[in-house]
Amino acid sequence: MGAKEITVVFYRQNHLRDNWKVDLDGVEAERFFGKLEGDLSRAGVVLKRSRNEAFTIDINSYADLLNAVRISSPTDGFGSVCIGHIIGQSQNLDLMDDIRRAVMRIAFAPETVPPEDHNRKVCHNCGCGC
């Protein structure tokens, strides 16, 4: 069996205001992703990054910024899930920390990510999501 592969996908961003701009190509981002890739590789997880220019997200809030970053992990059944769905509310409004939290959750505890609303099925109305 091959290594688990997780891809962080960045959608094109249209910033409607000046705040919430994060440099995803700079030295700090490269250092961050290099460290995260190294940490994950020791656990047998391959981390990749890509851009999807086909979709543009209007960034008017931090929640929009979270929506513009997606995680894909086909092994776990995640095609394209925004990091806001994976981590819930951001604790510190720090995009790199939120990306790290989302990737680690998908890497080591994907079963804790609730299904998207259109995939939720409840068999006996208890709300357990089974």
Structure description:
The protein is an alpha+beta fold. The protein is about 30% helix and about 30% strand. It is built from four helices and four strands, in the order βαβαββαα. The chain has helices at about 25-40, 60-65, 85, 95-110, and strands spanning about 5-15, 45-60, 70-75, 80. The chain has a four-stranded mixed β-sheet with strand order 2-1-3-4. α1 packs parallel to α4. The chain is globular, with a radius of gyration of 15 Å.
Question: What order do the helices and strands come in, and which of them pair?
Answer:
Elements: E1 4-15, H1 27-41, E2 45-59, H2 62-67, E3 69-73, E4 78-82, H3 83-87, H4 95-108
Helix pairs in contact: 1-4
- Taken in chain order, the helices and strands follow as EHEHEEHH
Q: Largest sheet, if any?
A: 4 strands, mixed
Strand order of the largest sheet: 2-1-3-4
Q: What average pLDDT do the residues reach?
A: 88
Number of strands: 4
Helical residue percent band: 25-40%
Strand content: 25-35%
Gross geometry: globular
Question: In terms of per-residue confidence, which ranges show pLDDT below 50 for 5 or more consecutive residues?
Answer: 118-130
What is the helix tally? 4
Calculate Rg over CA atoms: 15 Å
In whole angstroms, how far apart are the ends? 28 Å
- Going by helix content, strand content and strand pairing, the class is alpha+beta
In short, what is this structure?
The chain has 130 residues and is α+β, with helices and mostly antiparallel strands. The protein contains four helices and four strands, in the order βαβαββαα.
